[in-house]
Amino acid sequence: MMDRIPVLELGDVLIVSIQGDPQDQDVLALREDLSDAVVRHGARGVIIDITAVEIIDSFIGRMLAAIADMTRLLDAPTVVVGMQPAVAITLAELGLSFGGARTALNLDRGMAMLNHARDARK
Amino acid sequence: MMDRIPVLELGDVLIVSIQGDPQDQDVLALREDLSDAVVRHGARGVIIDITAVEIIDSFIGRMLAAIADMTRLLDAPTVVVGMQPAVAITLAELGLSFGGARTALNLDRGMAMLNHARDARK
Question: One Pfam family this chain carries (chains A, B) (predicted)?
Answer without folding.
Answer: STAS
